[in-house]
Design a protein that fits this description.
By secondary structure, this protein is mainly α. It has helices spanning 2-9, 13-34, 42-51, 68-84, 88-99, 107-124, 127-139, 142-159, 164-168, 175-188, 200-212, 219-222, 240-262, 270-307, 319-336, 342-362, 369-376, 383-390. It is 60% helix and 0% strand. Helix 5 crosses helix 7 (127-139) and helix 13 (240-262) runs antiparallel to helix 14 (270-307).
Length: 451
């Protein structure tokens, strides 16, 4: 590697970066022939950091900087490389060696370049880059995935108005990336504060994707070999938990946001108030559509979990994530004052109850009714939630009853004897038989329409 480094030092930044990719391609192609998952040695990693991320090897040396045009050209070189590389395994390992966090000073440059590369891939629809990014999101700690999601949201929701349509079009090009993007976005926007409410354009985008095909949520789960114990600190297999959090907390979060805007001492003008209320109304309709789609996906899960032999062994809606969600709802309900937010609290609890019931019935949520009763005991009263945590009424078994006989629902209370059986009623006398009406074929019946 030292000979390669000396030759790269004589080149300009762009040609050196291109040459590094070329050498890495040769190195990993040969490594993959002997080992299915080769490790990245120290030498190639140092070349990447020095000639792609411009991190100087010598301590104390000033970092190199590419100007905007050079950076754009570097991104184009990388996009073209991943587009032209035909072997998926080589693409994946080079992408991983480029952008897997190493816990050193190159990570900031690494993440900045990754955000720009994926943003460019979305703009010009480079599917191989998007597929590599989807696998990267699946295998990288969530704190870095959230940074990539924020960079894409800034580019396509905040920077240029209307550019969200470009992001919307990748739904058919790379559904796997869309699934992972939704998972990372729900981890980023958890509605814990007004700043962490998803932008309306982003919400509309995600709801349109999921409403068009709810199975999009399950793509990573259905196409990944899964162990019953998932690693901690990474994105979940599906965005189900994050989407349930959105639907349940949305009524309360938007009410909190409205309350904060009224209490800041600057009441909005009538035009601004009408615009805000109209936007909030649209968002509430989107959350209703999203809630319906999430319930539909939960109902599909029992068959998929059974097929993968994971039913009862893998909770795609972890109970450990339900507990903080319930605590947040309880805190928001107390903060908003139930007298002023009764409708919002009722809607949030209704959605929570529906999601819990369907998730438990499908095997996505692994817990007992006693667990739910303990967790939900401090929530405001809600009829539907009470039904869910109480569970179905189990009738006692009746061994003496004949088959096909179903006991009455309302049995006598304990301590009171059952009523004595009534004596049998006398049989009615047989009625006289009516004469049989003979059928005369060919006989017509007069017909007059009613006027």
């Amino acid at each position: 590697m030292s000979d390669i480094r000396h030759s790269l030092l004589r080149r300009d930044a762009l040609s050196a970066a291109k040459e590094v990719l070329y050498h890495l391609d040769i190195y990993f192609s040969s490594q993959l022939q002997s080992a299915p998952l080769p490790l990245v040695d120290k030498g190639p990693a140092e070349l990447l950091e020095e000639f792609l991320f411009q991190v100087p090897k010598e301590r104390g040396a000033p970092p190199k900087r590419l100007n905007s045009l050079q950076e754009l050209q570097l991104l184009e070189i990388m996009c073209n490389y991943f587009q032209e590389q035909t072997k998926d395994s080589v693409r994946q390992i080079i992408f991983s060696s480029l952008f897997s966090p190493q816990g050193n000073k190159a990570d900031d440059s690494r993440m900045a370049l990754l955000g720009k590369l994926v943003s460019m891939a979305v703009a010009v629809c480079r599917v191989p880059v998007l597929e590599c990014a989807a696998f990267w999101l699946q295998r990288t700690p969530a704190v870095y995935c959230v940074r990539l999601a924020r960079a894409l949201v800034d580019d396509y929701c905040n920077l240029v108005p209307g550019s969200i349509q470009t992001l919307k079009q990748i739904f058919s090009a790379s559904p796997r990336f869309c699934c992972q993007f939704i998972t990372s976005v729900t981890a980023l926007y958890d509605l814990s504060s007004d700043d962490l409410i998803p932008p309306s354009d982003l919400l509309e985008l995600i709801v349109s994707w999921i409403f068009e095909d709810p199975r999009l949520i399950l793509i990573t789960f259905l196409n990944t070999p899964i162990a019953a114990n998932l690693p901690i600190g990474f994105l979940e297999l599906t965005p189900l938990t994050g989407l349930i959090r959105w639907c349940v907390k949305a009524p309360l979060a938007y009410k909190r946001k409205k309350k904060a805007s009224l209490s800041n001492g600057h009441p909005p003008s009538k035009i601004a108030k009408d615009s805000t209320s109209g936007e909030d109304r649209d968002c509430h309709q989107l959350y209703s559509k999203l809630h319906l789609s999430v319930l539909q996906v939960l109902m599909m899960l029992q068959g998929h979990l059974t097929e993968k032999n994971l039913y009862g062994r893998l909770g795609l809606v972890p109970f450990d994530h339900v507990v903080p969600l319930v605590e947040e709802i309880n805190r928001l309900s107390d903060e908003l004052n139930p007298l002023n937010a009764s409708k919002e609290i009722e809607l949030a609890l209704d959605r929570l109850a529906q999601a819990l019931q369907v998730a438990m019935a499908s095997g996505a949520l692994l817990c007992t009714r006693d667990d739910l009763r303990t967790v939900c005991s401090r929530l405001p009263h809600n009829n539907l939630l009470q039904l869910v945590i109480s569970g179905p009424v189990q009738q006692p078994t009746h061994g003496t009853l004949p088959p096909g006989f179903y006991p009455h629902i309302h049995t006598p209370p304990l301590g009171y004897p059952a009523h004595a059986a009534h004596p049998a009623l006398p049989a009615h006398p047989a009625l006289p038989a009516h004469p049989v009406q003979t059928f005369i074929p060919g006989m017509t019946f007069p017909y007059r329409p009613i006027r």
